[in-house]
C-alpha cells in the first residue's frame, strides 16, 4: 500500500464519498478526496435538506388557516420567496463548512478540484497525477430531462433552490418523489400547480392505496393532476412558457419543472478509458463488494443506480470503508426493508412490500387499513385525512409492509422499520401498547383485516 500516494482516493464529496472517506481515515487509511462543486453533494446542497426546509415553509399557509379553529386570529399574511431562499442558502453554506471540517478532522486530504480516473490506480486531480491503492467513484447523479423540443427551457430540481422570482404558475412534469414533493411545496407557497404524468397513476412502485389516497389529497389542496399525458414541446414566449401536450392542449406557465428521474454522473470521468464497465443507464456496474470491472476501482451511491436514497449511499460508503480497512469481514450490504418517505403533502412513509408485491411473493396476506381525520383537524376544519396500512404474511404472521400517508409519516415509519428489520409479527404489533392520543397508535390497534375481492376463494 505504501507505494501509492493514498490507500484510498475518493472522487466526489457527497453523502457516500464523505462517509467512506471519513470512516476509512478513522480506520487508519491515508485518504484523499476530490470535489469540484460543493461539500455534502446533492442531498445537502440541492436535494433532501433544502427541500425539507422548503416543505416546512410551505406548510405555514395551511397552519395559519388551521389556527382559526383553535381560537387564534392570524393577521395579514404574506410570503417573501427571496427571504426563504437566502435563509436556506445561509444554512446550506454552514453545512458545507461542517462537511469540510468532518473530512479535515478525520485527516482526509482535500482536493478542491475535478478528478478523473487515469488508470487502475491513478487519478488526475487539479492538473496533478496521484496514485491510490483503491479508487472510489462516488460522483452521484444528475437530473434527466427527455429529448423534447424546447428542452432547454425546462427547469430541473437544482434550479428550484436558487430561483430569483417565485413562479406563480408552475407545471411539474413527472410522477416520482421530486415531482410530488415540489408540486406540494409550490402549491403551499401559493402557486397554481399543474402536475403532468405520462402513465395512468403516479408514484409507480408505491402501494396502490397510498398512491390513490395521495392523489385525492393533493387534488383537494388545489393541485391539478393530469395522468396519461406527455409534453411534446416547450415554447418560450415573451413573458412565460407554454407546454404543448400530446392531447392537443397547451398550458401556460412561469416555470416548467422536469422531475423525470436522475441519471448517474459518469461522463468525462475517464471510466470507459480505464476499462470500467457501465450499464445502459451509464451506471457503474459493481459486484457485492462494490468492485467495478477494474478491481481497484469501486463505486457507491447514486452512481451505481441501485437505490437512489441518501441513507443507502451513506450505508454503502460505510460498508465499503469497513470492508477495505476494518478488521472483520463485513456481511454483504443489506438492501431489504429500506424505509423511505416522500415529503409530499400529506407526507408518505413506507417500508417493506406493497400489497401487490406481498401477494405475489407470499400468496395469502392479510391487509389492515385505517383511514381517518386526525384529531387536530376536528377543530381546524382542514379536510386532510390520514391513511395507514399494514400488510401481513398469513403463513408466518410477519408484518411485511407498512405504509402511511399523513403528518410525520417518515418519523413514524422509521420506528416501524426497526420492528420489521427484527422480523416483528402482527401479534407483536398487537401486543404493543399504543401512545394515546396519537396517529401512530393506529399501527398497533388495527384488528380487522380488510376483505378484498377474491379473498375467500383464495382461502
Ligand atoms: P423518480 O425515479 O422517483 O421518478 C421519475 C418520474 O419521471 C417517474 O414518474 C417516471 O415515470 C417519470 N419519467 C421518467 N422518464 C420520463 C420521460 N421520458 N417522460 C416523462 N416522464 C418520465 O425520480 P425523481 O426525479 O423524482 O427523483 C430521483 C430519485 O431521487 C428518486 O428515485 C429517489 O430515489 C430520490 N429522491 C428521494 C427523495 C426522498 O427520499 N424523499 C426525494 C427526492 C428524490 P415512470 O414511473 O412511468 O417511469
Question: What would the keywords be for this entry?
Answer:
Enolase-like, domain 1; FAD/NAD(P)-binding domain; 7-stranded mixed beta sheet; 3 domains; alpha/beta; 459 residues; binds NADPH dihydro-nicotinamide-adenine-dinucleotide phosphate
Task: Describe the protein in words.
There is one protein chain. This protein has 13 helices and 21 strands. Helix content is 31%, strand content 23%. It is globular, with a radius of gyration of 24 Å. With 459 residues, it is an alpha/beta fold. Strands 1, 2, 3, 4, 5, 6 and 16 form a 7-stranded mixed β-sheet that branches. A 5-stranded antiparallel β-sheet has the order 17-18-21-20-19, sandwiched between helices. The model has no long low-confidence stretch (mean pLDDT 96). The chain has helices spanning 15-26, 41-46, 48-67, 81-105, 157-160, 177-188, 208-220, 310-325, 355-362, 376-380, 409-421, 426-430, 455-458; strands at residues 6-11, 31-34, 109-111, 115-119, 122-125, 128-137, 141-143, 169-173, 192-196, 224-226, 231-236, 241-245, 250-253, 255-258, 262-264, 297-299, 340-342, 348-352, 365-372, 386-393, 399-405. The chain has 3 domains: 6-142 and 263-325, FAD/NAD(P)-binding domain; 151-260, FAD/NAD(P)-binding domain (3-Layer(bba) Sandwich); 340-458, Enolase-like, domain 1 (2-Layer Sandwich). The chain binds NADPH dihydro-nicotinamide-adenine-dinucleotide phosphate. Residues 146, 174-179, 181, 197-199, 202, 204, 259-262, 308-309, 340-343 line the site of NADPH dihydro-nicotinamide-adenine-dinucleotide phosphate. The site of NADPH dihydro-nicotinamide-adenine-dinucleotide phosphate has 23 residues, from α6 and β17.
Amino acid at each position: 500500500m505504501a507505494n501509492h500516494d493514498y490507500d484510498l482516493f475518493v472522487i466526489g464529496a457527497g453523502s457516500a464519498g464523505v462517509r467512506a472517506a471519513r470512516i476509512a481515515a478513522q480506520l487508519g487509511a491515508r485518504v484523499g478526496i476530490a470535489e469540484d462543486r460543493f461539500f455534502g453533494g446533492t442531498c445537502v446542497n440541492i436535494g433532501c435538506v433544502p427541500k425539507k426546509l422548503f416543505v416546512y415553509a410551505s406548510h405555514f399557509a395551511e397552519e395559519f388557516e388551521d389556527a382559526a379553529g383553535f381560537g387564534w386570529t392570524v393577521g395579514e399574511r404574506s410570503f417573501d420567496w427571496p427571504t426563504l431562499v437566502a435563509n436556506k442558502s445561509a444554512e446550506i453554506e454552514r453545512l458545507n463548512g461542517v462537511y469540510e471540517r468532518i473530512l479535515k478532522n478525520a485527516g482526509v486530504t482535500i482536493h478542491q478540484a475535478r478528478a478523473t480516473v487515469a488508470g487502475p490506480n491513478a487519478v488526475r486531480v487539479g492538473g496533478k497525477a496521484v496514485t491510490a491503492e483503491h479508487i472510489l467513484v462516488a460522483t452521484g447523479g444528475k437530473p434527466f430531462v427527455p429529448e423534447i423540443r424546447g428542452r432547454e427551457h425546462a427547469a430541473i430540481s437544482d434550479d428550484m433552490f436558487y430561483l430569483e422570482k417565485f413562479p406563480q404558475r408552475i407545471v411539474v412534469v413527472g410522477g416520482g418523489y421530486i415531482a410530488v414533493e415540489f408540486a406540494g411545496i409550490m402549491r403551499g407557497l401559493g402557486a397554481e400547480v399543474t402536475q403532468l404524468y405520462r402513465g395512468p397513476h403516479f408514484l409507480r412502485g408505491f402501494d396502490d392505496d397510498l398512491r390513490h389516497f395521495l392523489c385525492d389529497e393533493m387534488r383537494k389542496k388545489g393541485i391539478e393532476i393530469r395522468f396519461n399525458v406527455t409534453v411534446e414541446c416547450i415554447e418560450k414566449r415573451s413573458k412565460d412558457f407554454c407546454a404543448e401536450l400530446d392531447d392537443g392542449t397547451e398550458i401556460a406557465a412561469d416555470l416548467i419543472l422536469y422531475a423525470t428521474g436522475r441519471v448517474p454522473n459518469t461522463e468525462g470521468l475517464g471510466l470507459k478509458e480505464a476499462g470500467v464497465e457501465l450499464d445502459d443507464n451509464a451506471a457503474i456496474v459493481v459486484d457485492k463488494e462494490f468492485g467495478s470491472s477494474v478491481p481497484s476501482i469501486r463505486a457507491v451511491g447514486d452512481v451505481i443506480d441501485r437505490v437512489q436514497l441518501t441513507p443507502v449511499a451513506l450505508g454503502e460508503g460505510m460498508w465499503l470503508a469497513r470492508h477495505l480497512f476494518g478488521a472483520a469481514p463485513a456481511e454483504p450490504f443489506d438492501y431489504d426493508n429500506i424505509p423511505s418517505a416522500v415529503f409530499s403533502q400529506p407526507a408518505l412513509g413506507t417500508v417493506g412490500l406493497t400489497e401487490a408485491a406481498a401477494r405475489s411473493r407470499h400468496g395469502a396476506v392479510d391487509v389492515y387499513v385505517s383511514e381517518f381525520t386526525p384529531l387536530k383537524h376536528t377543530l381546524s376544519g382542514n379536510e386532510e385525512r390520514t391513511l395507514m396500512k399494514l400488510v401481513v404474511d398469513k403463513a408466518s404472521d410477519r408484518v411485511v409492509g407498512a405504509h402511511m400517508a399523513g403528518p410525520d409519516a417518515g418519523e413514524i415509519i422509521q420506528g416501524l422499520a426497526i420492528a420489521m428489520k427484527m422480523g416483528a409479527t402482527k401479534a407483536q404489533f398487537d401486543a404493543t401498547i399504543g401512545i394515546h392520543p396519537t396517529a401512530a397508535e393506529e399501527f398497533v390497534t388495527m384488528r380487522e383485516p380488510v376483505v378484498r375481492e377474491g379473498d375467500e376463494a383464495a382461502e
